[in-house]
Task: structure prediction
Amino acid sequence: IDFSKKIEIISSFFIYLDTNERKVIEYFEERSSEYYRILDNLNTRAELKLENI
Result:
């Protein structure tokens, strides 16, 4: 299971987590979203370079 699916599973138990646990999960969600955005951007650039060759 990838990380985002694990977060989805944990999300249903969010109300039972303390503040620090919530902050950690939110931090990982933000970082993974940014990571996927960067990867998507790099993938788009790579595809454009391949088309121009």
